[in-house]
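Long-time lurker. I teach an intro course on protein structure, and each term I like to show students one example going from raw sequence to a predicted 3D structure in token notation. This year I'd like something fresh instead of my usual example. Would anyone be willing to generate the tokens for the chain below so I can use it in lecture? Attribution to the forum is fine with me.
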Amino acid sequence: MNRYRIYGLIIETEVEFMQLEKAAEEEGTLENTIYIREEKCADEVMETITKADALKQQYFVDAKSSCFFNKAGYYLIRDGKEILFETKEGYTPATVSPWLLGYCMAILLYERQTIAIHCSAVVGDDGVFIISGEMGAGKSTLTRKMLEKGFKIMADDVAAVRIEKDQDSENESAYAYPAFPYQKLCRNEVESRNFDMNELIYIDEAKDKFLVPVKDKFVSKPQKLKFMIFLVRAKTDKVLAEKLSGLNQLFAIRENVFLHRFKGSWENAKEYGELCLKLASKCPVYMIYRPAEGNSQDEIADIVEKLARGEEVELL
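-- Reply from a regular --
Happy to contribute to a lecture. Here you go:
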């Protein structure tokens, strides 16, 4: 049996996840231990989705029990505690692992009143900030720039955010929890930085991506969330920054929830809505507009560094 740590949880499973940190036998509690098991569940998944009239969507999300299927297999997530999966012909536990750590974990976190944000989580001197953005806006490149500036990382692609009481007061804050000590980078990013290819893990034939180790820069403990960056490619000849407020701030957060692409009635649940409102009230959001052409990453990184250090930034 393998034991791993991710998002403040302990995973017990027969599946091997090369990118996850291993957990010792004495780590974890009954409450924060979850289980991933390969088990026959296709019939239950299909029956649940058929009853929900969701065959076209191929998924059903609920606060207690959720499921979905795709080209590789069937997945059942229960009570924020266990993930069952059954692979289709030609697939193995190793080949479905991206879905187990992606959508399955995001659903499990939702069932545990935790929000999975599609972003990188970068750590500064007094907390963490998250970097999200449109596809192709440069999220991964900006994250790498921040690491080169001396910042650290606790999550790439997905960060788990919870609302909790501060240890030294009765106040509540948003806290981000660590994922694993690798960053996902496209081949051109890897080749431009002359990484040792023997240290990388190739993960995606369709998108041609690699897992790049960042163990020396990885932060393994939860950090208080300071703010969120949202990158946008825009019709502008220079980099612009804007602080969002009100509903725009809330919408920016909800649009970047990893499960947002699984649209459904679960998004209208009272508990989920209240959780998003709390997060929006405790997480300032800055939109950064970058020119569609050219390389403006150094300028963007300078703006983000100033925000992280509490320095003044020119805003729209």
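Some talking points for your students: The helical segments are 42-51, 97-111, 139-148, 187-192, 246-255, 270-282, 297-308. The chain has a mean pLDDT of 92.
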